[in-house]
Fold this protein.
Amino acid sequence: MVNILIVGSQGDYGLVGLAQRVGDAVVHYLVVGGDATGLERYGVSKAFIVQGVVDEQSLANAVLELARANNYALIISPINKFYRTAMPMVAQSLGAPLIMDVTDLKPSGDTFEVSFNGIGSRAQVTAGVKQPAILMAPPARFKPTEKPTSMSKETLQVKSVGQVKVVSTEEKARGGVRIEDAELIVSVGRGFKKKEDLQLAFDLAKVLGAEIGCSRPIAADLKWLSEDHWVGLSGHKVRPKLYMAIGISGQPQHLAGMMESRVVVVINNDPNAPFFKNCDYGVVEDLYKFVPALTNKLRELLKK
Amino acid sequence: MELIALVKLALDTGQLRVSGDKLDIENTPLKISDIDRNAVEAAVQIKEKVGGRVRAISVLKYGPVQKRVQEAEGLIREVLAMGADEAFLVADNALVNTDQLVTAKVIAAVIRKLGNFDLILAGEASIDGYTGQVGPRVAAELGIPVVTYARELRVDGNKLTIKRDLEEAVQTVEVTTPALVTVTREINVPRIPPLLQIRMAMKKPINKLSLADLGISLGSPMEVKGVSLVQVRRKGVIIKEGSVDDKVNKLIEALIQEGIITRG
Ligand SMILES: Cc1cc2nc3c(=O)[nH]c(=O)nc-3n(C[C@H](O)[C@H](O)[C@H](O)COP(=O)(O)OP(=O)(O)OC[C@H]3O[C@@H](n4cnc5c(N)ncnc54)[C@H](O)[C@@H]3O)c2cc1C
């Protein structure tokens, strides 16, 4: 029987579902944020609870120490910038592979067969990995089955390394959208010349009952929209019934986030925009003329 | 300041070649991973301000190595033209199909060979693997601090002040060199070197190294077994004729047929 460690907040317990694909395993959970209540329902036999705020390097050291003591075959964590920084350090120190965006896991002898999204999210890759290995995946992808067990809890004092000194932290604005769950998306790109012009897309989205998505520059560079609207390789993956891309060129890193949309509509005034090769319906037109006309017509039609 | 930029020669995900449903890696062209250009730009800007030297390191991960070396050198020339002084290209058949553990060990071996350094810069992630692990792995290998996702970087002697772009916050941190910093696309606009610079870059050295030159041999803990491309068939109906109203009507008809909207 192998030992597996999940590292994440209490809300990331979906990852236990990934661990369960190994079959018989002892599952430990390093809880970073939360008190571990309820984890015993999914068969977690031991919870280590981290007190206070930790930085990536300090967490990496703590995980490493646990890994050395308990000989974990797999260490599993969610995907965000904190773990994207901490876990590679753990992996390097353990001499272990780290696989990002894992979709499936099967034991095969004393190795594992792991499937994941790779090559800029354009491919499904399958690899054989030796133990120990580090796997990262979005927790919501997996549903742990209930197997109640008795769980012991231990608080873990993480020693702070303090090489990187945090001077200040400034919270970002949040739009409160869950673009991943949207059924209809109107997505905006740099074809919009000014922030105020986004109103054209907001009006259209309102008539359609759609959420607003955007390309990376709109959120990351121009900051016209909060990051929860950002679609793509480095943003959110979406799978709506309708994805309407307005003034977005269709670079592979944007496509990586919306490949699973059912119907893709592209509005762009450049007939050579790469997005036209990846759409169901492509309208070659100036968005400033087309979008208001479309909104008006839809408003009449849908009686809104 | 002794600056090092890590430059991945990545698969050009905009030009993936396919055979059947498999990705044809050997025939897919390489490009400089976009965000690594930002890393080079950041390094060159620091050099321009405080003086010093920029050395670039690339580890060739895709075969056939024989054929790729020339392609790789052409790409590295661009980095030299941007202002890097010298480049190190590790090319070895044993590196094809290895994972990031190996990449980081090789990079660290090159850096140890180069001797002293102050700051290593890398992109937040490559466009192909997009795992972002090589930066932190190299830092761990060398036992130096790492700061990821820098969108602003200030150098004051041996002190670095960095704004990190995290999901929910912008964090300002301080660290002293030696350190490794990964940068975002938003940190700067990489320069496009003029022709003269590109010609001048022909004189700058590209040092080719094998694993034997580095005195290391490595095994990968991961073996890729299959890569199948996610291919989606799209209808590709292009609406370009007629007036704006004609186009609006055509699109609305299509949306009705697709069952996306229904007449009210
Ligand atoms: C590692 C990495 C990760 C990345 N991650 C992401 C990601 O997650 N998401 C993402 O989106 N990008 C991402 N990018 C960036 C990506 O490569 C592109 O730079 C970006 O998607 C371009 O955004 P855009 O299409 O809005 O802008 P542009 O490429 O500038 O395109 C603007 C488009 O608007 C059109 N246009 C202009 N005026 C009009 C008009 N009046 N009417 C109609 N159309 C008009 C133009 O023809 C053009 O096609 C990433 C890049 C890297 C290197």
Remarks:
- The two ends of chain B are 67 Å apart (CA to CA).
- The first helix of chain B runs from residue 34 to 50.
